[in-house]
Amino acid sequence: MKSMHLIDVTNNYSDLVQSQLNTTDANYVKVYSLGNTSVIYTESKNAIGIALENHNRRVREDEVEFIIKRLLKNYDSSYTLTVDKSRHVIEIHVDK
C-alpha cells in the first residue's frame, strides 16, 4: 500500500471556493488533491462537510478513512457518510 499524500490545491479552484462561500453558509473552504481523487472541505459554524470525488474510479475505503483521520482528527463526534451508487462521490458530514 503506497502512502497517500493530501495536497492543498485550493488556489487552483478560486471560482469553486468563491461560489461555496457565496452560496452556502460555509465560512471556510479548502480543496485538496489525493492522487486522482479530489477532496473539497467546507466548514460552517454548525458543520463540516467533506466531499471526495473521483470521476475515473470508485473512491476507495482507505481514502475515506485517511481523510477522516487527517481532516477530522479534532472531532470525536459521529459523522454521516453519503455514498452515491457508483461510489464516485462520497460525502462526509459532521455536526459541530
Walkthrough of the structure:
The structure is a single chain. By secondary structure, the chain is an alpha+beta fold. It is built from two helices and six strands; from the N terminus they run βαβββαββ. Strand 2 (28-34) and strand 3 form a beta hairpin. The longest helix has 11 residues, at 61-71. It is globular and about 35 Å long. The termini are far apart. This is DUF1827 family protein. It comes from Lactobacillus amylovorus subsp. animalium. InterPro entries: DUF1827, LMG18311-like_sf.
Q: How does the SSE layout of this entry go?
A:
Elements lengths: L6 E2 L5 H10 L4 E7 L2 E7 L3 E7 L7 H11 L7 E5 L5 E7 L1
Antiparallel strand pairs: 1-2, 2-3, 3-4, 4-6, 5-6
**What's the rounded overall pLDDT mean?**
93
| Largest sheet geometry | 6 strands, antiparallel
Task: Write out the strand line-up for the largest beta sheet, numbering strands in chain order.
Answer: 1-2-3-4-6-5
Oligomer: single chain
Low-pLDDT parts are none
Content of β-strand: 35-45%
The number of helical runs is 2
* Overall geometric form: globular
* Helix content percent band: 10-25%
* N-C termini distance: 33 Å
> What structural class results from the helix and strand content?
alpha+beta
Pfam family, one: DUF1827
Protein name: DUF1827 family protein
Organism: Lactobacillus amylovorus subsp. animalium
